[in-house]
Every structure is written in C-alpha cells, then in structure tokens.
Amino acid sequence: MSSKKDPDVSKKPRSAFSRRGFLGGVGVGGGVLGSGLLSPVAEAAPASGPAAVPITLKINGKTQNLTLEPRVTLLDALRNHLDLTGAKRVCDRGTCGACTVILNGRVVYSCTVLAIDAQGKEIQTIEGIAPAGKLHPVSAAFVQHDAQQCGYCTPGFVMAAKGYLDRHAPKSIEDVEKGLGGNLCRCGTYVGVRQAVLEASREMKGGRNA
Amino acid sequence: MPEYSWPEQGKRRLMGTRISRLDGGEKASGRAKYTSDLNKPDMLFSAVLTSPHAHAKVVSVDTSAAKAMKGVTGIRVVSGPGTEIQWAGTEIAFVAAASEEIARDAARAIKVQYDPMPHLVKEENLAAAGVRAKAAGEAITGDPDQAFKDADVVSEGSYGIPVLTHCCLEPHGQVSQWAGDKIEMWPSTQNVSGIGGDLSKNLELPATGVHVHMDHVGGGFGSKFNSDRWGIEGTRLSKESGGKPVKVFLDRATELTIAGVRPSAFGRIKVGAKRDGTITAWQSETWASGGFGGGGSPPLPYVFTTIPNQRKNHSAVSLNAGGARAWRAPNHQQACYLTDCAIEDLAAKLRMDPLDVFMKNADVTPRADVYRLQLKQAADLMDWKKKWHARGDSGSGPIKKGLGLAIHTWGGGGHASNAITRISPDGSVEIELGSQDLGTGTRTAIAIVAAETLGLPLNAVKVKIGDNAYPPSGGSGGSTTIGGVSVSTRKATVNALDKLLDAVAPSMGLPKEQLEAVDGKIQQKGNAAKNLTWKAACAKLGAKTISETGVNDPKNPGGLMSAGVGGCQMAEVSVDTETGIVKMVKSVAVQDVGTLVNLKTAESQIFGGCIMGVCGALMEERIMDQQTGRVLNADMEFYKLAGIGDIGEIVVKINTEPQFDKRGVIGLGEPASIGLLAAICNAVANAIGVRVPNAPMTPERVLAALERRNA
What we know:
heterodimer, A: alpha+beta, Ubiquitin-like (UB roll), DNA polymerase, domain 1, 28% helix, elongated, B: alpha+beta, Aldehyde Oxidoreductase, domain 3, Aldehyde Oxidoreductase, domain 4, 3 domains, seven-stranded mixed beta sheet, 29 strands, 29% helix
C-alpha cells in the first residue's frame, strides 16, 4: 500500500462513515445510470458516448490494459471487463457500500469512481487481499461470527472493515458502528459484523498497518 | 424398515450446535459466484425500458433508432401500441446488445408515445379510494354489539403500516441461453427446481427443456420464485441473437418499483375488555393494497384468534403501483402490528402492564402454554418488570425511554423434498438436492443432518444443490426449506447407511441390526472395540456406489418435522422528544423452532428478522407521488434500511426445551421477522405517552403525535 505517497490520504483518515459526506459533496444524486423510471422519455438520445479510450489500471499490484468508454465506472470495469466480481453492484449510486474497494489506501465506493479517474492509483479489490485458497483475517472473522447470510453485501463489508482496520483500532462496538456506517445489509447481519470486526482488529493489530 | 427418527436430544454430535456455514469462506472472500457475477463467453447484456406513467395507453413504440445502433442484437417490445399500462415501471421493451452501455443507450433511444390516464397510487385514505376499494364483506363472531356494551373498558385507535419493497441486494435477473433444443438458465431465484418449469410454460416449451443452475442468490425474501418477464424476454433475446447468452438484471430503481412489495395495512380498531384485562370484543375496519391486484389481507385478530365476539370488515384497494409478492411472513407483520398495537393501547387505557394483559389473554391464542412461557422468558431477558413504567416516561429531560412487546406465529412445515445420498467405495459421501441456499444456511444444514446420521465429521460430506438436474426440492418460501431438506436428507442418508451396513455386516460377522455408525467408524453397538473405519467399511462396497433416495412428504412427515410455532419479541427504545428520533436500546427475541439444526445460523436468522423489524418500525417505506404516479424513493438513499449503528443490543433465545425439541424440525425465517416491528412501535408509545398511528416511526411522525398530545 503506497498510501503515504498519495496527497489524498495526507488528510485525516476517513472512516467509511464520512464517505457519505464526501459523496454528497460531489452530487451523487445527480446522475442516474439506469434506463428505468427516472430517465425522461428519450428524445433524440445520443447514440453512444465518446468513443472508447485506452485505460490502464493497477489492480491488486497487476497492471491491466483496457479499452473503455470514459463513462464506465471502476465498478463496471472490474465486474464486466476484468471478471473481478467480488465488488457488487447494488444501489449503483454511492449509498450501500456493496462495491467498496480500496483506492490508494482509502475506502471508496467503486460505483462512484470512473475507471478513467482511477488510473495511476493503487486499486485493491477483495480478490487481492488474500492469496488463493487463504482467507484474510477479516474474512475469517466474518465466517467465524456468521457476519453474512445471502452474502451479497459481504465483500463490500469486508473491504470497508479492512480499510478501516488498516488505520484504526476500534475499542468498542460503538467504534465499529462508526467505522462501518457506510455499508448496508438487507439480511440483517450487523450483530455478527460487529463481533467480526472487533475480532479481526485484534488479529490485525488495528491501526498499525497503514 | 430403517429408523428415521432424530437422535435423542442429548446424543446429537452436530445438530443443535454452533456450526459455521460451509460456504462462508467463499462468500467472505468474494469468490462466491452469484448469477449476477457471471461473465459467459460472448455474453450479451440486456436493458429494459419501462413506463414513466402509472396509468396510460401505449400509442406507439418506435424502435428504429435503437435497432440501427451498432452492437444492438435484438429488441423485444412487450407493451406494444394499445397496451394499457397499470403502474409506472411496467416493462415496455427489452434490448440486447454487446455491452451494458450500448443496451442502456438503445433502451433510451426507443421512442414511446403514451396517452396518460388518471391514476391512484396512495391508499392511506380509504374514502379517497372510491370504487378502487373492494369490500370483502363483514365477518361476525358472537355478539360484538352486546359485548362492547358490556365491556368495562373500550379502546379505539387508528393504525397503519405502509407498503415495503423486498430490496434484495442482488436485483432480479438471470443469464439465459437458447442452445438448440435446450435452454440453459442461471437465475437469481428461490426456486431452483421450479423456475425452469415456469419458464418453459411461458415459452410454451416442454418442461424438461430448461436446465437451471445457481450457486448463490443475493436475497429473495419471497420475491424470487418465477421466471418473470425479464426471464422470458431475456431468453427470447438469446434466441434472436443467435443463441448467445443474455444477461438481464434490473437496475435499482426498477428493482424497487416492480420486483415485488409487501402490501400495506391500515385500520380502525376497537377492543373491549373487562376491568381485569380479559378481552371480550374485537372490531376492525381495515384496508390494504399490494398494487393493481389489491392484495394484503391480514389475519385478524392476530394470534388472539378466539376473542369471543368479533366484527371484521376488510377492503382491498387497487392502486396503479407495482404488484405484491410474498414478503417474508406474508400478512403477518401487518396483522401483528394492527393487533398488538391495539392491545397495547387497551392496556394503557386499563392502566395495566401490557405483559399482564398478554398473559391474561393467552387462553384465546392457539398455544397458551407456549406464549406464557415465552412471555416470561422474554420478560426476564429484558428485565421487563424492573424497567416497565406506565405510558409516558415521567422522567425529566427530552429523552424518553419505553418498552413494548408483541407475539407472533407461523407455520413453517417442510415442503416436498427429494434427496439422494451417495456413498462411494472410496468413502466419499455426496448429497444431491434441487434446493437453494438463500443465506439461511441450507447447505450447512443438509451437511449437518447427513454427517450426524453417518457419524462423520462435517467436512466428509459434500452437498450439491442449485441444479434442477438434482432430485426436486421445493422453493424456499414460507420457512419451508429447513423442514423439507432436513427430512429428505435424513431419510436418504439413513437408507444409504442401511445399504452400507448390508455390505459390511458379513465381513464383521454380525447382523446389521447390531451395527452403528459412530465417530468415523462402523462399530458393534455397545462394543466400540469391534469396528471398521469408515474407509475400510466403504471399501467393502467393491466397485459399487450406494445411491439412495429420501423423500419428505409434507402430509406424512413421520415425526421428523412439524408446523406451527410461537414467538415473543420485546423492544426497548429511547425517543428524543425534541428531534423525534427513535433509537433502539435493546431487543429480545424468544423463538420456538422445533428441533434445532444449527444454532449459529438459526441465531443469525433471528438477528436478521429483528433487524428487518427495526427497518420496518423506524425507517422503511415506499413513498408514492400522487402527482407523477411514481415511486419517489426508488433508490437506497431514501428507501431507508437500518445501518449497523441503528440496531442496539439484540438478545436471542431459541426454545430447545424437550416439549419444543420433540416436535421435529420447523422453519424460522418468517416468524423471526414478525413481532419486533409492533414491539418497537409499542415501545415508542410507552416512551412518549401517545400512540404514533402509522409506521415507520420517523421523526416527523413522532413529532406530529407529540404535538397532537400537547394540543
């Protein structure tokens, strides 16, 4: 993790909780990607966006050369073009955290980052936090404390927890609740998540890995 | 005839203990592949164009611009000219294209002209619904008029709970491929064995022509049983696109608009009682809507079913809004809310502790002993008697605390299920079922039952589900899965073991009746020294693999499973009377589950059910706009779910006392999600001294209720 080299992270470390404020600032409510209800009836809609351009991403330490339209989000680049499907598309507008990845050491919602803007940054996805066949301590703690049911939010929670524990050492459930406040689960697995993150924190010597 | 009954309670090695889910590592590492994660070679993406109007006639659909776009391989118009649209979000056309971006652009490029018509999208006010409300007719038991005249106390109130959506995190959709005379389908479904038949019926093809595969599903909650329009059209688009696989997944706005809702329920309720708290009379005038087809008929009075004198009227309201689907414990949350809030208000009027009123009236429930025990257990865990105060926290300061409770019921009997257990000469064991694991821990439960039966460690058993080529097993709805798969697995595995003992008995020189499978060995009963290791025993099979079936017949479960449970949930909240914000302090859930299979995942189900109760009580509702006819909060910013900081402490007790254990396995997904919603709303009333009539208890509604009280 080259977080110290990145000017973004010289600021006070952000917990997932504060991402809502950050995202609010850039106006996530303004764009609707879906073709559903909120789109007005199309009148001479443009046939397509600007043409695809070469995009180079550094993901889990590996350089990936892609040709993508500039409007493609980092999430869609991961899922549709690189088959890195741990990050999930759920709300698709920076609310739920299911798409969480770590960008230059900072926890971000990959649905609200354009792939083209992620160039030159260290991108870490859940596929890159543990070697094949092994579990990262956060993942292992999620299993141990049954911090998942359907599991669709889980990779996002694991990444948010890892990003949080890389920088913080939670002392209490209240700390964990603040650190993981940017992720949502529908099955209701938060009781397990609270315990899992506290346990993983002991394992990871929370806050000393940054 | 082999003996199928469960091992005695004290003699189980695995069942009822705390076991981590088998697919936990796969899920928590992001390696689990959900259908929405699939990237098949040459796969096309589909997007859906939906109606912005709640009620309209389609005048024309022009797909020429979309068709001309590079990369578009197929377009299917499903609501052509002349179609009358009855809710916003209705599918107009599906497009298939080489990329998701092109598919969306093409959907947007389809020009549709509509002739808008008047719509109704809100049902809170029954009078405003006019002819859209259909009365079901009055139902009378006993003599309610006389009973209300004779009652010492009569309590009356208005109550309402709104439409919710399922909000599955993995949206509805599938990948499907038209491959000659066979269709390959990878759905996101609760119904692996059944969805293929539904698709073939819709496509007018033989039922055997659809091969269904699914490893994981990202939430269903009752909304994912059928092939749906996107399944049908996605498959047709595959055919039109030369048999390439086509992926269709709804975007979040469409998901929250048309992929299913929990019906609302509103009502004016009157309860009459004697001075000692005995309820003598019930009257309810209720209405509900689950969309255009009406829907929603809460069973009232809930749990207290045999109140001697009752008058009930119910109307179904048809709205121009997305339709209802089964939503975890259909109709029960609504019925529990209407009933238990009305009884809490009665208790307040009687100046009695509602715990005493619930206890007093347990005799008009179908399982008085169960509820009395659970009310006591829950009260102990909540420290109810010490904490409870009469309605309205009299303490100084703006933060008020309160307690509330509710009781609930559910069936949860197992569905029809077939399983195969295979024991191979190399000692490996496989169980196959056409079932699915919604996150409830079904895979793990199957492995536990098989390993328990064979005396093997859990990891010696391989569970294969998620394929309709396996023996059919029911859809996962109504908490029917655990009963169904536990029984079919138990029977198949007992049958397979019986065959193994047949093969082993001669070489051990003992009749098979004297053999048992324990601790990875086949041994003589009562003489563990005389044994064969599991591997050595299986080697006696020579080249032959044992393959035995087991069937759960819901009508004849043989004591292995049953139906009908009780549960009690209690809530403690704090309410800031200056801001109207309600916070969860503590919840208690006591639940009957029959014979417990896995303590760890059962607790998770109950935690999750309680958290859904928090969502429904405090934040979750679909908000419709009568002006535009659309869902205003079809996103996850304003369709609010509880976050990790919103849930407070949750204490779960599962009833494992012998009288519960002996009943066999019973489902718990639904009952766990029923009572807490009403309990929280009752706790709010207890805290602030006034009923907030309509859930969710948002700051706005809490402040409005306080204002009315102070006026």
